[in-house]
C-alpha cells in the first residue's frame, strides 16, 4: 500500500475550535454550507463557499493555507477538465461554478477528516445508519466498509501515479493499457489484502450464523510460501 | 490444540490440471511456540494460513480448539490472529492509534474507553509515542511492532506470524523476537532465520509441500541444512 494522494486527508491532531466541536455539529456545518453552493450554482455563492471553507480550515482548524490548498492538488486535473468542458458548453460562469462547487465539497469533506479522528468518524457513521438495523442492516459493518472505501482512495490514486511512472520508465507513457490494466489488478489485489487483513483480526465478519459452510477470505489454494 | 487431519491444498495448474501446494498432512500442534522452516514455495505460508481459515483445505480438515476452520471459520479467525510478512498489508487505517482502535471496536463499545485501551496497547509495545504518526512514516521495525500490536489487541488464543522478521534489520529483528517470546498465547511462525527457528519448542521442516521433519528445533535445523545441501 502506498500513502500518497491524500485527497481526503489524514486526521491532524490539534486543539483548535473545530477539533473540539462535536462531530454532529461539524457534519451539519459542512453539509449545510456546501449543499447550497452546489444547488444555487451562482458565482457569488461558489466564491462565498470557497472563502468560508478556506477560513474554517485556516482559522477554525488552524491549518496552514498551503496545506489546505495542497488538498486540492490531486483533484486539479479533473477540476481543470471540468472547467474547460463547462466553459465550452455553458459559458464562463459555469467554468467557475461547476469545478468550484466540487472544490467546496472536497474542502468540506477534508474539514471533517482532518479535525476528527477516524474512529470517531466511524462511530458517527454507525450512529447515522443505526435506524437501518430494522431493515436487517449491520451498522458496524456498513461503517467499516465505508471507512475502508474512503481509506482506499489514496491508495488507488498513489497506485495510478506509481504505475504511470513505471510505464514512463519503459517508454510506454502513450499506452493507456500499460496503466489501466495494472491499476485494475492492483485494486483487486488491494481489496483482497484488506479483506485478509481484517480477517486476520477476526474483524468485518458476521457475529452469528457460524454453522454455515463458508468460503474463506482467501480462495482455496491461494497460499504462498 | 490445532489439528490437521489429512489436510491438503491444491491450486489450478497452468496446464488445466492442479498443482499440490500442501500434500495430505496430519499434525497435532499444542506446544507454546512452534516454528516452521523451509525453502521458498515449500508450503510454509499455506500451512499457517490453514490455521485461521485464510486458506481452506482442498481435502481433509483443520481445527482449532475443536472448531473446524471450514465450517466455523469466522469463530476460528476470532481466536487465531495472523501477522503478515509485510506490515503494510496488515494495517488498514492511516495511523497506529486508529488501527489499534479498529481492532478493539468489537470488544469495547465506548469510544473514550476504546481510545484509552488502544493507547495502553501501543504503550505496552513501546510505540505509544508513534500513535498519531502516519503508518507510512514509520520504520520497518516500528510498523511490524504495530502490526503485532493490532493483532494481539484482540487477544487471540493463538497468534500466527508469517516470516515476521524477514524485512527487518538485526536490531528490529531482535525486538520482534523478544516481543513474540513474551506473548502468553500459543505462537506459530515461519522464518528463514535458523537461529530464530530454534527459539521455539518444536520445529516443522517443509519441503515440496510435505512436512519432512517434525521435532526438536536444533535437530530440525540440522536436518534442513542437510536437505539444502543435497
From TrEMBL, chain A:
The lineage of its organism: Bacteria, Bacillati, Actinomycetota, Actinomycetes, Micrococcales. The keyword Ribosomal protein does not apply. It comes from the Bacteria. Residues 201-225 are annotated as: Disordered. Keywords: Membrane, Transmembrane, Transmembrane helix. The chain crosses the membrane at residues 44-61, 68-88, 94-112. One of its GO terms (cellular component) is plasma membrane. The keyword Membrane applies. This is Energy-coupling factor transporter transmembrane protein EcfT. Pfam families: CbiQ. InterPro entries: ABC/ECF_trnsptr_transmembrane (IPR003339). It is a multi-pass membrane protein.
UniProtKB/TrEMBL annotation, chain B:
InterPro entries: AAA+_ATPase, ABC_transporter-like_ATP-bd, ABC_transporter-like_CS, ABC_transpr_CbiO/EcfA_su, ECF_ABC_transporter_ATP-bd, P-loop_NTPase. GO terms for cellular component: ATP-binding cassette (ABC) transporter complex. Residues 2-229 form the ABC transporter domain. GO terms for molecular function: ATP binding; ATP hydrolysis activity; ATPase-coupled transmembrane transporter activity. Keywords: ATP-binding, Nucleotide-binding, Transport. Coiled coil: none annotated. Transmembrane segments: none annotated. Belongs to the ABC transporter superfamily. This is Energy-coupling factor ABC transporter ATP-binding protein.
Amino acid at each position: 500500500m502506498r500513502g500518497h494522494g491524500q485527497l481526503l486527508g489524514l486526521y491532524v491532531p490539534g486543539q483548535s475550535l473545530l477539533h473540539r466541536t462535536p462531530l454532529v455539529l461539524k457534519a451539519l456545518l459542512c453539509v449545510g454550507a456546501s449543499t447550497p453552493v452546489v444547488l444555487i450554482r451562482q458565482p457569488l455563492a461558489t466564491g462565498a463557499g470557497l472563502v468560508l471553507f478556506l477560513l474554517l480550515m485556516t482559522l477554525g482548524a488552524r491549518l496552514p493555507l498551503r496545506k489546505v490548498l495542497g488538498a486540492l492538488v490531486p483533484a486539479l486535473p479533473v477540476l481543470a477538465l471540468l472547467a474547460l468542458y463547462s466553459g465550452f458548453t455553458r459559458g464562463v460562469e459555469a467554468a467557475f461554478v461547476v469545478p468550484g462547487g466540487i472544490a467546496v465539497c472536497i474542502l468540506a469533506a477534508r474539514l471533517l477528516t482532518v479535525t476528527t479522528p477516524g474512529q470517531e468518524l466511524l462511530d458517527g457513521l454507525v450512529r447515522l445508519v443505526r435506524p437501518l438495523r430494522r431493515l436487517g442492516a449491520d451498522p458496524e459493518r456498513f461503517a467499516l466498509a465505508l471507512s475502508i472505501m474512503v481509506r482506499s482512495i489514496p491508495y488507488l490514486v498513489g497506485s495510478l501515479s506509481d504505475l504511470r511512472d513505471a510505464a514512463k520508465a519503459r517508454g510506454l507513457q502513450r499506452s493507456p493499457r500499460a496503466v489501466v490494466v495494472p491499476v485494475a489488478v492492483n485494486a483487486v489485489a488491494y481489496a483482497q489484502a484488506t479483506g485478509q487483513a481484517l480477517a486476520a483480526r477476526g474483524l468485518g465478519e458476521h457475529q452469528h450464523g457460524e454453522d454455515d459452510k463458508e468460503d474463506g477470505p482467501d480462495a482455496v489454494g491461494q497460499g504462498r510460501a | 490444540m490445532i489439528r490437521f487431519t489429512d489436510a491438503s491444498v491444491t491450486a489450478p495448474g497452468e496446464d488445466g490440471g492442479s498443482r499440490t501446494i500442501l500434500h495430505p498432512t496430519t499434525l497435532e500442534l499444542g506446544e507454546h511456540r512452534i516454528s516452521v522452516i523451509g525453502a521458498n514455495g515449500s508450503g510454509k505460508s499455506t500451512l499457517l494460513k490453514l490455521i485461521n481459515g485464510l486458506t481452506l483445505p482442498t481435502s481433509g480438515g483443520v481445527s482449532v480448539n475443536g472448531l473446524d476452520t471450514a465450517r466455523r471459520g469466522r469463530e476460528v479467525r476470532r481466536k487465531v490472529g495472523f501477522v503478515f510478512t509485510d506490515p503494510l498489508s496488515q494495517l488498514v487505517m492511516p495511523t497506529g492509534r486508529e488501527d489499534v482502535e479498529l481492532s478493539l471496536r468489537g470488544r469495547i463499545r465506548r469510544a473514550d474507553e476504546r481510545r484509552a485501551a488502544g493507547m495502553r496497547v501501543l504503550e505496552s509495545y513501546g510505540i505509544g509515542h508513534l500513535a498519531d504518526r502516519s503508518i507510512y512514516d514509520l520504520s520497518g521495525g516500528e510498523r511490524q511492532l504495530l502490526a503485532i500490536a493490532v493483532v494481539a489487541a484482540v487477544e487471540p488464543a493463538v497468534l500466527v506470524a508469517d516470516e515476521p522478521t524477514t524485512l527487518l534489520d538485526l536490531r528490529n529483528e531482535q525486538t520482534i523476537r523478544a516481543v513474540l517470546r513474551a506473548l502468553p498465547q500459543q505462537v506459530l511462525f515461519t522464518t528463514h532465520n535458523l537461529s530464530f527457528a530454534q527459539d521455539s519448542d518444536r520445529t516443522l521442516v517443509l519441503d515440496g509441500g510435505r512436512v519432512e521433519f517434525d521435532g526438536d528445533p536444533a535437530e530440525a535445523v540440522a536436518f534442513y541444512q542437510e536437505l539444502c545441501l543435497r
